[in-house]
Amino acid sequence: MEHTQDSSLTNLVSALEARARAAGNLAELGFSIANDSYDLLAFRQALVFDGDKAASRLQTVSGLAHVTEDSPYLIWLCRVWPWLQEQFGHQPGWYQPVADDAAMPPEIMAGWREWWPAGVFALPLRKRTGETLGWACFLLDNPPTEQQAKNILHVSLTWSYCWEMLQKTNNKPWFDRLRTLSSGRRWLAVLAVAALMLLPIHQTAMAPAEVIALDATTVASPLDGVVKTIHVRPNQPVKAGEKLFSLDDTTLRNRLEVAQQSVAVADAELLATTNKSFDNLQSKSDLAMLSGRTFEKRAELAAVQAQLNRIDVVAGHDGVAIFGDPDDWLGRPVSTGERIMLLADPKKPGILIHLPVADAVSLDIGDPVKLFLTVLPLSPLDATITETSFQAVLSPTGVAGYRLRAAFTNTNEQARIGLRGTAKIYGDRVALGYYLLRRPLARVREWSGW
Q1: CB 160 within 8 A of CB 126
Q2: Is the alpha carbon torsion for 151, 156, 161, 166 positive or negative?
Q3: One domain, residues 44 and 107
Q4: Is pLDDT at 136 greater than 90 in this prediction?
């Protein structure tokens, strides 16, 4: 019977070692240590810590797929673990506090009574050089038997070796790997990287963009007044001569009546003075003044009539009326020349690009652009730059940038005015090394001043 039990323990130890060797990374190894060893030690909970002393951190908790460090228990555990390490030193062993243990801080004793059983059996996992890689802790109701301690210490040697090998595989710096190469291969690697850094590529920049009309006509207020009526809807196609909006004519109608009465009075005075001039020399001298006043009043009347004729603004050509909400314009005072809307030709769309200053690259007229519309992200539209700017202005989002305009290479019905997206701009060809280091070098220069 004893021989059968020893054989079973040997098989269990071999199985634990095989699972440790099968781990593909440190996370899998920690999971195996915290969960697969239950058959060897009937623990209440198992904990695996990565590192040693102040650098030690909780990696795995038995029964949990992920460690949530904001739970009250784990917050307390992070406080108690540095103190426990001091009690163990760097040796495996069993620790069980006593009721009147003055060396244990009160907050640790309170948490122990709430969350932990009688004691903890901890063993360090070391490199072959003796350096501590991590810790495995098992919370038990009773101290482990001599046979259990012997078996778990034996398995811990395999855990330590696997941990060391996985750590070398996962965390080996690239320069350490380079050192393992022969001198010839190192030179080949350096030459390959240098050749790759000289590979010519286009400078590129990404910027928000909007489809606009290239030859849009500004429709402005012809005189000072108040908007009375908007005759069209936003983005509505219109024909040449069709009414777009009208200004309120109340003030002008009143001025027209006053001007007409002034002309009638001036004409009557001129006629009366003309009749008197045949017998009265004084009347003859007043004729020139009254005649000039009559011409003045008629000119004022003509000016008011001309303004009345301009209160209805019509489209100068066929196109699409582009403006905001009509309700925002109704009853709004406007001044002469203030833009109300744009009259655009939908058959001649273009792109307005706001290139942030931080992302600016060297650009010339004719450089290619790809527009990725938000509604069609997988179908880029080709265009070329037709206009650049040298002065940065604020974009609608409040970001300082350069305004660029581009024309589509081919006519595309998908490019409807008003659609937005992201433009990818291709600048001059530069070496890959310059492309990768351009912004870091600019930051260093700003910081250093050279």
Answers
A1: yes
A2: positive
A3: yes
A4: yes
- Measured distance CA(335)–CA(353) in Å, rounded: 30
Residue in 328, 333, 385 with CA at minimum distance from that of residue 362: 385
For 67-83, b/e burial (b = at least 16 CB within 10 A) is beeeeeebebbeebbee
CATH classification of the domain holding 404 = 2.40.30.170
Which residue range is the domain that position 261 belongs to? 217-340
| 421 & 327 share domain | no
Of the candidates 367, 362, 361, the one whose C-alpha atom is nearest the C-alpha of residue 382 is 367
pLDDT of residue 1: 44
Q: Where are the beta strands (DSSP E) in 150-307?
A: 200-213, 217-220, 225-230, 236-238, 243-247
All residues at 6 or more sequence positions from 11 whose CB lies less than 8 Å from its CB, including other chains: none
Report the distance separating Cα 163 and Cα 95, nearest Å: 25
Residues 139 and 10 in one domain: yes
Separation between Cα atoms, residue 28 and residue 387, nearest integer Å: 58
**Neighbouring-strand partners of residue 350:** 212, 407
Q: In angstroms, rounded to a whole number, what is the distance separating the alpha carbons of residues 245 and 111?
A: 77
Residue 242 vs residue 411, higher pLDDT = 242
Query: How far does CA 323 lie from the centroid of its chain?
Result: 29
Q: What token pair was written down for 411? A: 């006519």
Give yes or no for a contact between 431 and 199, defined as CB atoms under 8 angstroms apart: yes
DSSP state for residue 311 in the 8-state scheme: S
pTM for the model stands at 0.48
State which amino acid sits at residue 435.
Y
Q: How many CB atoms lie within 10 A of CB 162?
A: 22
Q: What spatial distance separates the first Cα and last Cα of the chain, rounded to whole Å?
A: 83
Task: List, as one string, the DSSP characters of 105-138.
Answer: -HHHHHHHHHH--SEEEEEEEE-TTS-EEEEEEE
- Residue 351 clears pLDDT 60, i.e. is over it: yes
Q: Quick one: 104 and 142 in the same domain?
A: yes
284 in a structural domain? yes
- Backbone region of residue 255 per phi and psi (left: phi > 0; alpha: psi in -120 to 50; beta: other values): alpha
